[in-house]
Design brief:
With 100 residues, this protein is of the alpha+beta class. The protein has a single domain, classed as SH3 type barrels, CATH 2.30.30. The chain contains two helices and seven strands, in the order H-H-E-E-E-E-E-E-E.
């Protein structure tokens, strides 16, 4: 029992120290836009939420580099840059990204 409690405490402390969410750490890297229906485009926004201005529309297949993600309300927003134009940065909904 005592070892189980100690193991749980060590695990919690290490997670807090490292600040790493394993799911989040695995999510960073190259992704493509997918799942946008019809002629619509994924909106890249100036901040993590629908209240921010739209920077550009991204069609399915657009390659992005995901730098970080955060939850705002019930939506997970990711800070991204375009693979071919890294100076163009913004936020997109995680729901429309697929790891490549």
């Amino acid at each position: 029992m005592r070892r189980t409690v100690i193991a749980a405490l060590v695990s919690g402390v290490m997670g807090a120290i490292l600040g790493a969410d394993p799911a989040m750490a695995a999510s960073l890297g190259r992704f493509e836009v997918f799942g946008v229906e019809g002629e619509d485009m994924l909106k890249m926004r100036g901040g993590p939420g629908t209240g921010y201005s739209v920077i550009v529309g991204l069609p399915n297949g657009t390659v992005l580099r995901v730098h970080s993600c955060q939850s705002t309300g019930s939506t997970r927003w990711c800070n991204v840059s375009l693979e071919r134009a890294r100076g163009l940065k913004g936020y997109v909904s995680w729901a429309y990204l697929r790891k490549i």
